[in-house]
Amino acid sequence: MALEFRFEIKGGDFAQAGNASSKIKKVLKQMNIDSRSIKKVVVAIYEGEMNVVAHACVGWLKAVIDESSIAVEITDEGPGIEDIDKAMESGFSTATKKVREMGFGAGMGLPNIKKNADELNIESKVGEGTTVHITNYFAKP
After folding, report:
1. Mean pLDDT by 10 residues, the chain (141 residues)
2. pLDDT attached to residue 105
3. In this structure, are residues 55 and 78 in contact, taking their beta carbons and an 8 Å threshold?
4. pLDDT score for 141
5. Cα-only R_g, the chain
6. How is the chain split into domains, by residue range?
7. 3-137: CATH homologous superfamily?
């Protein structure tokens, strides 16, 4: 049986950023998923949340969890990503000065998602938004 969770992420709301990753972390702990798998999932989801908060007007996160994996889809209404390959480079950022002054926007979001995801797919349309698909498989106990 799979569990499904949905969260709304508001652009610019740094105070609420991380809520989805925190709640999913609690669920994974309750399911006795191994800690290394949990860490990878939480880092990937948190980075995705932060990208929505830093760059988009609004976004949604959907997570489907079963005993062997988690599939996450993060969709936003934002500026889109002009060059996904460039955005995947460590240190590349389009964050505003304000976001950087708050300590975010260092250009590590997408590279950290890639590093912590077993599968990653990014679709983006400039002027419309971005959808990030993340899948992680849990280590066998």
Report:
1. 96 94 97 96 97 96 97 97 93 86 84 97 97 94 65
2. 80
3. yes
4. 65
5. 14
6. 3-137
7. Histidine kinase-like ATPase, C-terminal domain (3.30.565.10)
